[in-house]
Amino acid sequence: MPYSKTKTSFYRRLYVAHLISAGVNTVPKIIELTGMPRRTVQDTIVALEELAINCEFVGANKDGAYQINDWGAINPLWIKGQLKHICKVLAYPAPE
User: Fold this and answer.
1) Torsion of CA 7, 38, 42, 12, to 10 degrees
2) pLDDT tens per residue across span 2-19
3) Beta-carbon neighbour count of residue 3 at 10 Å?
4) Which long-range contacts (CB under 8 A, 24 or more apart) does 46-54 make?
5) CB 72, CB 53: distance < 8 Å
6) CB 67 within 8 A of CB 25
7) What is the pTM of this model?
8) Distance in angstroms (rounded) separating the CA atoms of residues 17 and 68
9) What is the pLDDT of residues 49-62, one digit of tens each?
10) Phi, psi of 6 (to 5 degrees)
């Protein structure tokens, strides 16, 4: 079933925010896990602000990582419960 660009973009943002909060919190780690291109990962992280998700880079450039400070109106428990579906829509490996 084909999914709209709007849905896949929304799910990608939710998935990246989930990964960051779960400790997969650097661009290289996200690339390794998802296979997303570097630019897509970077653009997705920047776009989290459009969903009112406050994401911040903490630390030095080489040793730093992203962290989610505020989820805004997004419920991270909903994301966790829908993770298999989100991964299916995005064609990423489902979590164990």
Assistant:
1) 20
2) 899 999 999 999 999 999
3) 14
4) 47/9, 47/13, 48/13, 48/16, 48/17, 50/13, 51/10, 51/13, 51/14, 51/17, 53/13, 53/17
5) yes
6) yes
7) 0.93
8) 7
9) 999 999 999 999 88
10) -60, -45
